[in-house]
Design goal:
Radius of gyration: 15 Å
Oligomer: single chain
Distance between the termini: 28 Å
Strand order of the largest sheet: 1-2
Number of strands: 4
Order of helices and strands: EEHHEE
């Protein structure tokens, strides 16, 4: 689980198979890891948040900046509780404005 594979908001672990049995790219099945399932859900939410039809370049830049904030997914502590893990998971939520990391339960 060293890196992310992202295609159409599906996030999978580095060691997960991204192809179907017949050799086609599998962009629809969920990751086997709960952490990447959560990141996938958050990426879908971010795609809905970053919508501005008049300025698509700003949308792409904003989403990619937000996505880049996951580069330290397993190294950034939660900004609210200060812990690296909660219920065995790192802080998977990234604030849309500040890009700060939060656990799901800490972000509210």
């Amino acid at each position: 689980m060293r890196s992310l594979f992202i295609d159409r908001t599906i996030v999978k672990g580095y060691n997960e198979n991204v192809y179907t049995e017949d050799g086609k790219l599998d962009i629809w099945s969920k990751s086997n890891y709960q952490v990447f399932q959560k990141v996938t859900d958050h990426a879908t939410t971010a795609l809905l948040h970053y919508q501005l039809p008049q300025m698509p370049d700003v949308v792409v830049r904003s989403f990619m900046t937000w996505l880049r904030s996951y580069i330290k997914l397993f190294q950034a502590p939660c900004q609210r509780c200060g812990k690296f893990l909660q219920d065995g998971l790192p802080p998977t939520w990234r604030d849309f404005r500040t890009l700060e990391a939060f656990h799901d339960t800490c972000r509210q």
